[in-house]
Amino acid sequence: MPNNTSESRVAKLCVDKGLKMTEPRKVIAKVLSDSKDHPDVESLHSRVRVLDPTISIATVYRTMKLFEDTNIVTKRDFGDGRARYEEIQGDEDHHHHLIDVRTGKVIEFYNEELERLKVKIANDLGYELVDHHLELFGSPINKN
Amino acid sequence: MPNNTSESRVAKLCVDKGLKMTEPRKVIAKVLSDSKDHPDVESLHSRVRVLDPTISIATVYRTMKLFEDTNIVTKRDFGDGRARYEEIQGDEDHHHHLIDVRTGKVIEFYNEELERLKVKIANDLGYELVDHHLELFGSPINKN
DNA sequence: TTATCTGCAAAGAATTTGCGGGAGG
DNA sequence: CCTCCCGCAAATTCTTTGCAGATAA
């Protein structure tokens, strides 16, 4: 049963990394490639189900861990209790998040100075920066 | 049964904020005041048990939520699945964390430029910064 | 007194895992 | 084939909560 999952960006990454391309992985890869937000596992699973209702949530969990270990996605933590995932783009496309505390809306941003600064801070402490978490939580400034 | 919990900094904060000062809260307050690390609820509970073995872990959870809502402690997330807590000092004592990925050691740091920058970023996006998460993960630079 | 708090144990929510059958290379 | 993968359901881990008795103010 062909479904148009063969050409997704994430699927290509899997092939590049030598992962066994099973049907569930193809579908999950496509869903990730098509997602422009930061879905949690439950959201991913329901999107995946549309394409293939036989895929279990356990497989989504296992696949996300695999993709994380293979640097295909990153895990995000927006303060609610669950993990969210986002496809890794290139270094150029690196960004952070500001979460609107009123609406929960997530705004992505990139700041050159910030990138420089966090590397410098780690170096000054005697460390090479290997990862970081940064989320800002903000309340919209009243424009009235 | 007197125990030397009456004078802890956190206990004073509780009184200041008008919280009912029960025995469990006094003990938990003392443990927090004496903690210079970032304990999770299980660690807190075992420290609390030393002073009073009758205090349940449910009370520790409830009390930490209360202290969080009352701005006595802040919740931290270091990437392992559990919440960690730290007493709020003053604005001057605000800091962030760098986690050594080899040893798990947590290094606290403060950076003026960073403070300025994150407020500016939020403002530029049309938001007032109300909270933020920032943790750096680093690998020690080989000094050989 | 009286509203709040606590311990206990059960419930929840997110995530992981053992197992036997199934599928990719 | 042969290893790795999957669905299922049970198990784990962290955290919350209903209840009935206890306690601070």
Compact description:
Chain A has 144 residues and is an alpha+beta fold.
Features:
homodimer, 144 residues, alpha+beta, 3-stranded mixed sheet, two-stranded antiparallel ribbon, 5 helices, DNA-binding
> In terms of quaternary structure, what is this?
homodimer
Residue windows where pLDDT falls under 50 for at least 5 positions of chain A: none
> Would you tell me the overall average pLDDT of chain A?
88
Structural category of chain A is: alpha+beta
Helix segment tally of chain A? 5
Q: How far is the N terminus from the C terminus of chain A?
A: 56 Å
Topology of helices and strands:
The structure is a homodimer of 144-residue chains.
Chain A (H helix, E strand, L loop, with lengths): L8 H8 L6 H12 L6 H11 L5 H13 L3 E4 L7 E4 L8 E5 L5 E4 L2 H13 L2 E14 L4
Parallel strand pairs in A: 3-5
Antiparallel strand pairs in A: 1-2, 3-4
Helix pairs in contact in A: 1-2, 2-3, 3-4
The structure holds a DNA duplex (25 and 25 nucleotides).
Q: What would you say this structure looks like, in words?
A:
The structure is a homodimer. With about 140 residues, chain A is of the alpha+beta class. In chain A, about 40% of the residues lie in helices and about 20% in strands. The first copy, chain A, has 5 helices and 5 strands; from the N terminus they run ααααββββαβ. Chain A has helices spanning about 10-15, 25-35, 40-50, 55-70, 110-125, and strands spanning about 75, 85, 95-100, 105-110, 125-140. A 3-stranded mixed β-sheet of chain A has the order 4-3-5. Chain A is globular and about 45 Å long. The relative contact order of chain A is 0.12. The first copy, chain A, binds a DNA duplex (25 and 25 nucleotides) through helix 2 and helix 4.
